[in-house]
Automatic annotation (TrEMBL):
It comes from Oxylabes madagascariensis (white-throated Oxylabes). Belongs to the WD repeat coronin family. This is Coronin. One of its GO terms (molecular function) is actin filament binding. GO terms for biological process: actin filament organization; cell migration.
Amino acid sequence: DWCPHNDNVIASASEDTTVMVWQIPDYVPVRNITEPVVTLEGHSKRVSIISWHPTARNVLLSAGCDNLVILWNVGTGEMLLALDDMHTDLIYNVGWNRNGSLLVTTCKDKKVRVIDPRKQQIIAEKTKPHDGTRPIRAIFVADGKIFTTGFSRMSERQLGLWDLNNFEEPIALQEMDTSNGVLLPFYDADSSIVYLCGKGDSSIRYFEITDEAPYVHYLNTYSSKEPQRGMGFMPKRGLDVSKCEIARW
């Protein structure tokens, strides 16, 4: 994960239970970079998720197969806090809200949790936002709402929009198709657009999220001949705004 505050810093997580932070110089290095700036050790099983804090510098989140979420101070290499008793099973994904005051996590125990890391408390929880058994993904969108992707009982892919103040009923729940790849949501806060792509899919659907019904508006689908293997957003300053480009992958 590239650091949002410093273009020369990238963090990586590994099966060897460590998280490493690397400094990439501006010039082209003559040989491979093999020495990290800092190695973060605290997980007991492989680390599958890392995410930089969106607003605080040098704060990095990691989540591992030991069901543990750790926040690190990268500057000192110290553990800021460990959320160890919140997840009972494998963590599928972790997302920050816009200012980094809350976390949303999805877990193999079919729960979506909203966590206040400062209080180290779960402030909201939803069991089975999607009825299917396949993995769920969740991200924060505008106004603190939560957007989820998952599967219905009939194994159809679904998307859902939820309000934290009333986590029982979804604001919107839509069925998409019967493909079996997990839908990965990417949210662009500037345009309130969610892009959905899946490993093995050859299309990207995108939706606008608004305050008026039906709340999640289908915009368009991008299709290619090649199936996707992985996805990443280009930072906004890498876009060609003279051609009205709003996102690049």
